[in-house]
Amino acid sequence: MGKPGYGLIETMRVREGRIPFLSRHLARLERSLNELDLARPAHGLAALVTPFAATGDAVLRIEVRDGRANVTVRALPPLAAPALIAASEPHQPYRHKTTERDCFVDAAAEAERAEADDALLLTQDGLVAEGTVWNLFWWDDDMLRTPALDLGILPGIGRERVLELVARVDQGRYARRQLAGKSLFLANAVRGVVPIASLDGSPTPADLRTAELAGRFWPAA
Fold first, then answer.
1. CB atoms closer than 10 angstroms to residue 217
2. For 107, which of 9, 34, 47, 87 could close a Cys bridge (C-beta 3.0–4.6 Å)?
């Protein structure tokens, strides 16, 4: 059994009176409960979350800890293109969306001190990993690239959706320098697809394919 106090979280979007990726969030939560051997809540999570679809455009956070589930509601985060820094805080493997998020909290605090909107984390070896709450993608000529899951990044719901929508995606290991001059965007199941304005003070070029992808990201009702 998992250690007491250790929990899982899922953060999901309420959009146009529904939760677009609810089944995917619940499936990931179920996989993590199984793999981490954590206690399950007594009541069904779908029944707990579904009534919140009536709250309007918002963000739901469900936390499962010690066999209990709790749902909180908050406003949407900013959806404008963010200015990023590459954090000095090294990325730690985060294959499950757990409550143990110290490296992400520290990276976000570093970004705030630098007067940036958010931070990109790199591995101990200097490889591009993921953002504090999102996965990273970038265009490289006719190829879309993203860090590979075997780096220990979260298998994000938004990441999964982008992989469905784009035919050619290379998932690999990339050094920070390989992002120079590339058109970057982030993806997660709350914000969707959002272009990145700059990284470490260098503006990132726009790409019309990012806007097109953002328009297709949310599944039809």
1. 19
2. 87
Please give the domain boundaries of the chain with CATH numbers for all domains: 7-74 (3.30.470.10), 83-217 (3.20.10.10)
Beta bridge partners, 130, equal: 121
Cα 143 to Cα 106: distance, rounded to the nearest angstrom: 32
CA torsion 34-130-174-147 (nearest 10°) is 40
Q: E strands within the chain?
A: 7-14, 58-65, 68-74, 83-86, 118-122, 128-131, 135-140, 143-147, 169-172, 183-188, 192-195, 198-199, 202-203
- Look at the block and give the residue holding tokens 């066999």: 67
pLDDT tens figures, 19-56: 999 999 999 999 999 999 999 898 889 999 999 988 88
Q: How many CA atoms lie within 13 A of 94 on its CB side?
A: 27
For tokens 């399950």, what's the residue? 40
Question: What does residue 162 show for φ and ψ, rounded to 5 degrees?
Answer: -60, -40
For the chain, the first-to-last Cα distance in angstroms comes to: 39
| % of residues, the chain, pLDDT over 90 | 90
Exposure string of 56-89, with b = 16+ CB inside 10 Å and e = fewer, is eebbbebebbeeebeeeeeeeeeeebbbbbbbeb
